[in-house]
Amino acid sequence: MSANVSSTKKRGFFNRFLDFIEVVGNKLPHPVTLFVLFSLAVILISALASRMGVTVTYDKIVEGAKQPTTVEAINLLSKQGIRDIFSKAVTNFTGFAPLGTVLVAMLGVGVAEGTGLIQAALRKLVLSTPKRLITAVVVFAGVMSNVASDAGYVVLVPLGALIFLSFKRHPLAGLAAAFAGVSGGFSANLAFGTIDALLAGFTEQAAGMYQPGYEVAIHANWYFMIASTFLITIIGTIITEKIIEPRLGEYKGDAKVDIEGVTAAESKGLTWALITLIAFIAVIVALVMSGILKSDEGEILKNSAFLAGLVPIIAAGFLIPGVAYGIAAKTVKNDKDIANVMGKAMSTMGGYLVLAFAAAQFVAYFGWSNLGTILAVKGANLLEATGMTGLPMLIGFILVSAFINLFIGSASAKWAIMAPVFVPMLMHIGYSPEFTQLAYRIGDSTTNIISPLMSYFAVIVAFAQKYDKETGIGTLISVMVPYSLLFLFSWAILFILWTVFKLPIGPGVGIRLM
Fold first, then answer.
1. In this structure, is residue 400 part of a structural domain?
2. pLDDT per position as a tens digit, 17-55
3. Cα-flanking dihedrals φ and ψ of residue 66, to 5°?
4. What percent of the chain has pLDDT over 70?
5. Per-residue pLDDT tens over the stretch 364-412
6. Facing residues of 241 across strands?
7. What are the tens digits of pLDDT across the range 132-178?
8. CA 365, CA 39: separation in Å to the nearest integer?
9. Rg (CA), the chain
10. What is the per-residue pLDDT across 436-469, written as a single tens digit (0 to 9) for each?
């Protein structure tokens, strides 16, 4: 990709810094080889840490009470470690979270693309959307996709690249804008999502240690998250257009999207695709409202069949309109054509499967070794030991959360470790548990996009390589660093202003304990 980076006579320090990250990162081996090397490093470090007796102790919440839990570094070069490396290699791969999500979603997306639905819809979008708004639309859609959990990674990120390409803009800038919205703005939204329910549960447990019976609602951070949605959209748009696109320069690759007008056959296909999509959504809504797709307790956002089945629902949401479009536009004739389109879509995933296998082993080894948990607890203890209070403590907490996020991708896993430490601590000095949760979410979101440990990072690299085969981890990180730094800075400013003016952070929820 370095060949695509615009050359200017005079480059500022920040651009030279990004160039350095890209050059150094891309001098590293192929991403597959890199994950293999990472895996070997984790094995060796785990053996060294285990022999040194590295352990950490933290308070785990069990039935509303603190229970000291000691975690030690696990030696992966031990007899059991070696056994696990060999015996669990297949299950590491098949159990790798993004694998099933990507492949199942691609069955539907592949049909929508193969029949021509996506291309026709994009041309319609190009003809009807003002060019000046398209970046904001992509970033905003990325943020809003978080309602559907991880679906934005496999649907919206590649779509962002296609949208930009259809506007004759650099596809990697579109990919970056969508990725920034989906992952960098993970905690922002106009609606509630699964992450709200997950984090609220841990916050409520931690708050119960200080004030038994304290309840945390899933909408506790809603007002701040609404404001954050517009903040991330505005900042993401500025970064894309003022930093990323000038740096990438003109796209010189082979990928192209036809932007001629929509034909009569395509228009008919789009009409039937829209009709079938509306009908499909109506069926899903009916299944949810009737209770069939709810949990046994009547929940939609917790332990429900709707959440568990969200990926196949989204796949069907592309597949059914894709088939309807193909039949109406006469781009497919029968079921064999549809099956062939699916097979063609899957045939493009070979490189990703290889990358996913290597990444899955690395993520598994890192988890087995307990190195991530040890880093998280050490970081939390270090912040606690500084003796800071009030706003400086909260800003420090955001920064530590952002740093730890580079090593533990799961938001709920980190919060399960950090909540018992910081929620009671900040309640003691008068801050509400919901406000502490809000601070954590800022740090947790902003460094997702630059961490190779984030489970979908390998997926994004694979999407980028579709437009530039030389794209590596260094390229992607160098493109995403401006988003990460400026999101963190601007979000922290919003957080400080919210604190200074003592604004409510959600319905009936304030910054301070009542």
1. yes
2. 777 777 776 676 777 887 899 899 999 999 999 999 999
3. -70, 140
4. 92
5. 898 899 887 787 778 777 877 877 777 888 898 999 899 888 877 667 7
6. none
7. 899 999 999 889 877 665 667 877 898 899 889 988 899 999 999 99
8. 7
9. 23
10. 999 999 999 999 899 877 878 888 988 998 898 8
Q: At 190, phi and psi to the nearest 5?
A: -95, -10
**What's residue 205's pLDDT?**
80
Burial 495-510 (b: 16+ CB within 10 A, else e): beebbeeeeebbeebe
Burial 249-280 (b: 16+ CB within 10 A, else e): eebebeeebeeeebeeebeebbebbeebbeeb
pTM comes to 0.74
Three-state secondary structure readout of 186-239: CCCCCCCCHHHHHHHHHHHHHHHHHCCCCCCCCCCCHHHHHHHHHHHHHHHHHH
Q: At what angle do helices 457-465 and 473-500 cross, to 10 degrees?
A: 130
Q: Residue 67: beta bridge partners?
A: 60
Residue 241 structure tokens: 């257009």
At residue 436, the pLDDT reads 93
CA-CA distance, 284 to 134, in Å (whole number)?
Answer: 29
Please indicate, yes or no, if residue 507 is contained in any of the structural domains.
no
pLDDT at 8: 43
Contact 233, 181 (CB under 8 A): yes
Residue 185's Cβ-count burial label (10 Å; 0-12, 13-18, 19+) is buried
The answer to whether residue 250 sits within a structural domain is yes
CB 280 within 8 A of CB 321: yes
The full length of the chain comes to 514
Report the number of distinct structural domains present in the chain: 1
Structure letter (DSSP) for residue 67:
E
State the Cα–Cα distance between residues 242 and 276, nearest whole angstrom.
40
- pLDDT at position 489 is 97
Q: Has residue 483 got a pLDDT over 60? A: yes
**Beta carbons within 8 Å of 330's beta carbon, 6+ residues apart:** 265
Residue 219 · residue 507 · CB < 8 Å = yes
pLDDT value of residue 5: 45
Q: Among residues 482, 486, 465, which one has the least CA distance to residue 157? A: 465
Select from 260, 258, 252 the least CA-distant residue to 467.
252
Mean pLDDT, the chain, whole residue set: 85
| Residue 96 located in a structural domain | yes
Question: How far is Cα 378 from Cα 168, in angstroms, rounded to an integer?
Answer: 48
Is residue 3 predicted with pLDDT exceeding 60? no
Look up residue 106 and give its two tokens. 């691609």
Helix or strand (DSSP H, E) at 314: helix 310-329
- Per DSSP, the residues of 420-441 read HHHHHHHHHTTB-HHHHHHHHH
- The pLDDT value recorded for residue 493 is 97
Single-letter code of the amino acid located at 401? S
3-state secondary structure of 170: coil
Domain of residue 20 covers: 2-500
